[in-house]
Amino acid sequence: MFEVLFEQTADGQRYIDWLLSGLGWTLALAFFGWWIAFGVGVVVGIGRTVQNRIFAALARLYVEIFRNIPVLVQMFLWYFVLPEVLPSSFGNAIKQIPPPWGSFFPALLCLGLYTAARIAEQVRAGIEALPRGQTEAANALGLGGYLTYRHVILPQALRVIVPSLTSEVMGVYKNTSVALTIGLMELTAQARQISEATFQTFTAFGAATLIYLALALIAYQSMMLIDKAVHIPGTTPVKDMTGQELTEEVQQAGTLPDAVEIVK
Amino acid sequence: MNNLDFSIILQAWPYLWSGLLFSLALTAAAFLIGMVLGTCFALVQHFTIPVVSQIVRGYIALIRSIPLILVLFWFFFLVPIVLGHLSGNGRPIPIGATYTAFITFGLFEAAYYSEIIRVGLRAVNKGQFEASQALALSTFDAYRNVIMPQVIRVASPIILSQTIILFQDTSLVYVLSLTDLVGAASKLAQLNGRLVEMYLAVAAVYLVISSAASQFVGLLRKRYAFTGAHR
Amino acid sequence: MLQESANRPAEPFQMVVVQNLVKRFGSFAALSDVTLNVAKGEKIVLCGPSGSGKSTLIRCINHIEKHDGGRIVVDGVELTDRMADINSVRCEVGMVFQNFNLFPHLSVVENCMLAPMKVRGLSRSEARDRAIGLLRKVRIHDQANKYPAQLSGGQQQRVAIARALCMQPKIMLFDEPTSALDPEMVKEVLETIVELAQEGMTMVCVTHEMGFAREVADRVVFMDRGSIVEEGDPNTFFHAPRTERAKSFLNQIIH
Predict the structure, then answer these.
(1) B195 found inside a domain
(2) Low-confidence ranges of chain B (pLDDT < 70)
(3) What is the pLDDT of residue A244?
(4) What is the CATH number of the domain that holds B114?
(5) What's the number of domains chain B is made of?
(6) Per mean pLDDT, which range of A23-27, B79-83, C75-79, C172-176 is the poorest?
């Protein structure tokens, strides 16, 4: 069934090369996007929990904006709108960037900042889930705000949210496909291209599907490994990750902030 | 900075409004189809009906692992073919992009709603079912009158949150050239050249609707604060 | 007059001075006009029915609760909103909580090393030596590399005491240290606190353990509904309480 992938294309390559090129873009976007998202997300998540009213409000604003606008619209804003609203020298410089980088960087920023908003909510939930006594004990020992977050709060909060971060990891590589709307030839775009060139729709999309499934499996297993690695000795291990997060969600339907949501 | 003319939004509004209506219609259709199917999927798994529950689980795992855009491409390709087979004559029936989109999103959301409902089922106390049995209620009546209402009550905030995400996801019909809110703005932008205003307007509409809906869900959560540990 | 003042012993230094303290939670007055002094080396036991404000009082002493009125001066430093003051006070005041509040992601010895390293600036090896020494003192050094979840309640509380002692505080506050423990573990923790008292540590202890209070306290302070109702030395308090409220409280506890 997949033989067609090894045929020659019009430009001298094989279709499978198209697919691999698309995969490369998908992975690059997902990888770097994740690290931007994680870095910004943890900072914003902490910002949501601090005493300082201004930081808390800014963090809240960030999350509201980046979570309530669809990824597609955000892509368009970064790609089409940003060059227009910047001062013309910057705007023109951005428009000069040749494809595919001209599509890659807006997509990267979009994906990173969008996912960051979701991660921020998970970090917030993790921090708020910790008993108040932890902060009190740290304060009683003389540990100030920064030290308390760094050595007591964050290490625990981040461990707690590893299972729910799995959906965000899966979400990142799935959302890379939205970049095709601004011209990035990532995996799904290439699959569509192949389907149009060879009329072998099943094969083309089937191959892409299998690759995405493989990515999902890798992501899931990696997160389980991480969860095991950071496991605190003496506590009960987490068995089924995605099942657990949903159970917690539903059981705490009245109390948990709308942080742990299911990601497409 | 170019001159921004936001009055263009007023002129464009009727067309944008029709796009928004399409988005909302798609959301509603997907919600209905998704909830009905999702409930079936959840119950099938809950009762561990052999073979069918395996297929359902496989379907759900597959749908949740691949991007929505790819799912859209798949279903747009497959739905006419499947309908053709179902109708018996074997030739693909094109039912138009709109209805295909409704079915596609419904089938897609079903995978997500199903998981929410399934966990909701697990969360309802087993004693509820035992009490129903003791009252000689049939399984069907027990589920219909006792179990499912509780499931819906407990799970409704999350179902609503999911629906808000669904509303945002409908924007992806853009890749199929359907005229939802984003599609309408995009077409207008090509005509009037006012990309910035059009897309900012779209962003604002989504922001307002999603944000308001989320606030509402937040209120619901507080009012129906159910089981679950209060920290 | 001069001769009298020459014979009078020097005024002991007041580690903690609490004057007219007020603390409100919303409209509820947890503490109304509380005045209390704790001299260096003195051991105070705070007792009273629930809601009397005893926990709130000691939590105000190291600013875990922020007071709304009155003054608190600890080791010569007045507690204001300034972080510098608060942190310097907290370095000298050790606190042991009812729920231990050990850091679950750190081992026992790491729990004890964290604050000395980050706040007092000790090196890792210095902090470790001090930690092991204090863990040895509370007789738990063989569990040094275990994690809190692997220890019993009594063991965790002793680690909590060692952790607080690692900062070499001048005064220790105990907030119902044995209330969350199973009965068979209460003894080991109380013994540890008694030893500490015998070594001369200034302490304020909120507790229901009256036997312990009789053994350790220099002064018993009885609180009810946000104010100090009666205080005095243990013998007087337990055998001949003066006020009605103290009498009824003791009747309930001792039976």
Answers:
(1) no
(2) 1-3, 89-92, 224-231
(3) 44
(4) 1.10.3720.10
(5) 1
(6) B79-83
Domains contained in chain A, CATH given: 15-203 (1.10.3720.10)
H helices within chain C, ranges in order?
2-7, 54-61, 83-92, 108-118, 124-137, 153-165, 183-198, 210-216, 234-239, 244-254
Distance, CA of C241 to CA of A27 (rounded, Å): 77
Q: Do B196 and A251 touch (CB under 8 A)?
A: no
Q: Are C99 and A159 inside 8 Å of each other by CB? A: no
Contact assessment for residue C172 and residue C202, using Cβ atoms and an 8 Å cutoff: yes
Q: Which of C64, C87, C114 sits opposite A136 (nearest CB)?
A: C64
Candidate from A48-57, A131-140, B70-79, B221-230 with smallest mean pLDDT: B221-230
Residues from chain C that touch A144, judged by Cβ atoms under 8 A, are 83, 87
* Chain A interface, best mutation among B2, B65, B153, by max A CB count within 10 A: B65
Angstrom distance (rounded) from CA C37 to CA C32? 16
pLDDT (0 to 100) of residue A10: 67
C168 and A CB contact within 8 Å? no
Please judge whether B206 and A177 are an interchain contact, meaning their C-beta atoms are less than 8 angstroms apart.
no
Interface test with C, best of A130, A141, A151 (most C CBs within 10 A): A141
Complex prediction ipTM: 0.88
Tens of pLDDT, residue by residue over C43-72, are 999 999 888 899 999 999 989 999 999 999
Tell me the pLDDT tens digit for each residue of C185-212.
999 999 999 999 999 999 999 998 888 9
**Token pair of C154 as six digits:** 């009594």
CB contact under 8 A, A212 and B70: yes
* Domain-embedded: residue B71: yes
Confirm if C119 and A141 have CB atoms less than 8 A apart: yes
Q: Is A164 on the interface with B (CB under 8 A)?
A: no
Cβ distance A143 to C83 less than 8 Å, yes or no, reads: no
Q: Please give the model's pTM, rounded to 2 decimal places.
A: 0.85
Of the candidates A153, A163, A212, A157, which has an alpha carbon nearest to the alpha carbon of residue A22? A212
Interface of B with A in 172-211 (CB under 8 A): 172, 174-175, 182, 186, 189, 195-196, 199-200, 202-203, 206-207, 210-211
CA atoms of A172 and A112, how far apart (whole Å)? 8
Mean pLDDT of chain A: 86
Report pLDDT for C255.
Answer: 62
Region C73-83: mean pLDDT is 86
State the nearest Cα–Cα gap between A144 and chain C, in angstroms: 7
The verdict on a CB contact (< 8 Å) between A249 and B158 is yes
Q: Does B114 map to a domain?
A: yes
How far, in Å, are A82, A104, B191, B208 from residue B195 at the CA level? Answer: 10, 20, 10, 20
Does the beta carbon of B115 lie under 8 angstroms from any beta carbon of chain A? yes
Pairing status of strand C77-78 against strand C69-74? antiparallel
Q: Is B13 on the interface with A (CB under 8 A)?
A: no
- C84-141, pLDDT tens digit by residue? 888 888 999 999 999 999 999 999 999 999 999 999 999 999 999 999 999 999 999 8
The answer to whether position B110 is within a domain reads: yes
Residue B106 token pair: 């419904």
Instruction: Count other Cβ atoms within 10 Å, centred on residue A207.
Output: 22
Does the beta carbon of A262 lie under 8 angstroms from any beta carbon of chain B? yes
The tokens describing A3, both together, are 């033989």
Give the pLDDT band of residue A251 (cuts 50, 70, 90): very low
The residue range of the domain holding B92 is 25-179
